[in-house]
Design brief:
mainly alpha, elongated
């Protein structure tokens, strides 16, 4: 039988097979826990670097707001790194949820294990041919919506606050542009780039959110993981 065809099990799992699946589930939970910790690490790095930039920028009224701009590069790097790690984490998480929904839940309810979903065949194919269950852009959007959109909002708010209040409260729009200028780069250009930078992240978060909604709606009728 070709590997891409559904595999039917007419007979129930034996005691030895049930024990093997239980150990398999424990292993997947352990791997998902390890990768979840790695996700937390990159988020913590982003928060720490933003905190350092805030301390430098607000250490004195005459301090430069430039650290808050430069930290945006680090935050973007950490976000990309976390999205890559999330794709790995999602593999183990999806397998755990798959076994919980299709094996443990029916067992706890006292129902017969469902055969029409081919849940065991889907899981077997995922082990034979491992793959990411979501794309990189989707992972980027999920981590952005979960954590990084708030980090970026704090960064943008702190930067604008620095321009507005230090060294003295601004009195005109021209003063804002003058304070935002970086060397030969006019303040208008700097602020425009900042708007495009943050607007791009917001657009990505919205697009991937809509994509996830469509994906979850289709999953109701499909045997899919991810």
């Amino acid at each position: 039988m070709p590997e891409d065809q559904p595999v039917w099990r007419e007979e129930p799992f034996t005691a030895a097979e049930m024990g093997a699946v239980a150990h398999l589930y424990r292993g997947e939970v352990y791997r998902s826990t390890i990768w979840r910790t790695r996700l937390d690490n990159t988020t913590n790095w982003s928060v720490v670097t933003l905190g350092i930039a805030l301390s430098l920028t607000y250490s004195a009224p005459s301090a430069s707001p430039l650290p808050l701009l430069l930290v945006g590069i680090l935050i973007a790097f950490f976000l990309v790194t976390e999205a890559r790690r999330y794709r790995y984490f999602n593999v183990w998480r999806a397998r755990c949820r798959w076994m919980e929904n299709h094996w443990y839940a029916p067992m706890l309810y006292g129902d017969a294990l469902p055969k029409d979903t081919h849940w065991h065949a889907v899981l077997a194919r995922d082990y034979r041919k491992p793959r990411y269950h979501i794309g990189f852009v989707t992972a980027l959007g999920r981590r952005l919506r979960r954590n990084y959109i708030w980090i970026l909002a704090i960064q943008a708010s702190a930067y604008m606050g620095k321009l507005v209040i230090h060294p003295r409260p601004i009195r005109s729009l021209e003063q804002l542009f003058d304070r935002a200028a970086i060397g030969p780069v006019p303040g208008e250009v700097v602020l425009l780039v900042g708007i495009l930078y943050n607007g791009g992240w917001l657009a990505l978060a919205a697009v991937t959110w809509l994509s996830d909604k469509r994906r979850h709606a289709r999953r109701q009728a499909e045997a899919a993981m991810g």
